[in-house]
Structure formats: structure tokens, C-alpha cells
Amino acid sequence: MKNILVIGAGFVASPLVKHLLDQPNFKVKVASLIFKEAKEIVNNHPRGESKQLDLNDTDALKEEISKTDIVVSIVPYKFHPKIAEICILYKKPMITTSYVSEEMRKLNSKARDAGILILNELGLDPGIDHMEAMRIIDEVKENGGEVTSFISYCGGLPAPEANTNPFGYKFSWSPIGVLLASKNSARYLKDGKEVIIESEDLFKNYDIVSIEKLGDFEGYPNRDSIPYIDLYKIPETKTMFRGTLRNKGWCHKMQKIVELGLLDEEKKDWIGLNYEGFIKKLINNTEEIDIKKALSIFLNVDIDSDVIKSLEWLNLLSDEPLPMMHATSALDIFASKLLQKLQYEKGERDMIILQHRIEASYTNGKKERITSTLIDYGIPHGDFSMSRTVGLPAAIGTKLILDKKVSLTGVHIPVHPAIYRPVLKELKELGISFKEQLESY
Question: Which of 22, 125, 129, 383 is catalytic?
Fold first, then answer.
């Protein structure tokens, strides 16, 4: 019987833990600062255990890691290096669904010396995107071709019937991550030329992306795409672009939200203000002028524009008192309101769209466009697609390591055939699969 320690009991934990407990030879302990959440996820399973754990308690963390066979960390990424250091100390492999930070990358040699694998980015994006990309790229190479263009988009959205608010977006977890990602700059390669987008211009740089049977979406660049040229081993490519998908209208509204200062992280004193007063303070409006008119002038939009209507729909122009009376940031206030207003109703489904558009040329002169698309929906009154597509790859990767089917050591992401082939195969068996289209040109 193998012992698995899952640290964290958040959004993706439920499908991850369920899948691991479905394996008869695994015992799973879920450790979380909030014991109630861990207990609910274990749900009295005979091979499950819940534990309260404070990540700041290093001795308690060491004790739990020393007793397990593998660690799956689904806590915020800033805690991963600390957990990884302890995993290295006790020679325990580790899996995360987060991007590899520079701090984590520096542990590569230590992990190799300890003979363990620290496998990161084993979720959806990052995760499934890497694995399907490498499956296609390796197939192109096996057929004597080379990749000349790589364009990828991913988005977690409400299913069409659940798209019921002005933002075309809903949260079932804290909005902070999405909002902070909105402040990233971006870099990518297009037709052999490097393109840099400053963070304040991110939402000005989007394209309309058509997805078969679902219609048009907005796609904008996601962080730094350039390193993936080396990670995917396609130095010959002239285009490398990774982007985020959102429903139409999102980018213009988010651009104005950035200009308004609603993503400002500086802690300030908002005591005694209602939402209208909060907005007036953001735009330095001290005159007795209608808030909608003042806002339309500040943002350079029509007073009856979708931007003003959307902010009004959020009650940001109302006399409703602010929820936090202590010093906090505009970002925190805005995130709190989004979580309140942009929630899924009971039984509503979310939707995942992940699409790779790859162009390849071959030695015989043939050229191909390969479009691979994953569309997945949440289960009404069950798990969200986002939690399944993030949690299940991590669960499958855990099985691979415990079954000794992966011999890699060090800090890695899932771009190796020994990882991506079995993970994609099992995901397909679980109903999460891509549809591929080929076009010669």
C-alpha cells in the first residue's frame, strides 16, 4: 500500500483525491490549514485521512512528508520551494500543477542528487497544453517534418447557457489569480520577430479567435511565450504564441478596469466610503458631478457604453458601503465584488477550451496545418471542468511515479513521452480528449 500526501484542499483537490482513492493500492492523506475542507474532500473514505497542517510549522511539515511515498502540492505556488526542499531532504518525489518558479528551478541539481522527480505544471494550462503540444511536435518530427508556427489558446469560461453576466466570466474560486495575471506583460515570436507587450497594454492586443461550433472569442497573449521554443525543442519555428481565451467584450472592459486603477495593490484607507465614493477617489473626482458622467470622461467612453453599464451592474457606482473597513487595496475590494457577483449558480457548468494551431513543413515539400481542440464541460451539481482538467493530470502523474513508470530525476515539466503519452491516454479514457483536424496547404 502506497501513501500519498496531498497538501491543500482547494478548488482542484476533490477530483484529484477521488481519482487517487479509486486506486485500491493507495492511501491518501489530505492536509490543509482548514481541517473542515480536508475532511469534506476525504468524505470518510476508508483509505483516506484528513489532517490540519500549517505550512509555517516546518517541523509538522517535515513529519508528514517523512511518512509518505509522494507529495502532491496544490497550495499557492510560493509555498512549493519550501515543500520541495523537505521532499529533497527525505527523498520523496513531488508533483505540483503550478508554473516552475525560478526558486523551484534552482532545486534541479539537489533533486537529481537526491534521486527524486519534482514534476511541475501538471494541470491544464500549464499541463495538458504541454502534453498535447509535445505529442503533435514529436509526431511531426517522426514524420520528417519541422514546426514553423505554434499558436495556442486556453480559456476557462462559463458554458454557453451559463454565460449570463456582462463580463462573460464566472468564478468558483478567488478572483485574485485571474486579476493578477491581468497585470502581466507579454512576449512572443511572430513571423520571426520578437513582440513585447507592456502590462498596461495587454488588453489592447487581442485577436478574434473562432472555435468551431462555439463561435468567436477574444484571445490575448499569456506571459512570456519565447521560452517554450526551447522547452518544446522547436528552434526552427518562426511563430511561438501562447494566449488566453475570453468571451467577446472582456478585453475592452478589462482595459478600462486597468485604467481606472481597480487592479492597484497598494494598501489604502477607505474607511467611511461607499462604492461610489471609492470610485470617486480612484478618479480624483471631488466635484459635485454625476458619477457616471465623471467616469465616462475619465475613461473616455460614452456614458451609456457597455463599460459603464458593467461597472453599474457590479454596484460599483452605488451607495452600498464597502465590505472592508481596514486598510486594503483597490484590487482586494474589486476581487471581493467580483466573487460576490460573478458566481456560478447551482447546477451551472463551466467550460474549458484549449486549442493548438500548428503549422509544419516536411522534406517532401508537403505543408500541414494541425488544429487540435479540447472542449470539456463541468458536471452539473458535480465537479467543474477546471478542477477536473487540473486535478486529474496530477493524479495520473502520481500513479505513474508510484508505479515506477517514470525514471526522470530533477525538476521537470511534462514534455517527456514517458509522461505525456500515458497521461493523455488515461485522460481520454476519462472523457477528456482532443479533436484533431489536418489541412494540407
Answer: 125
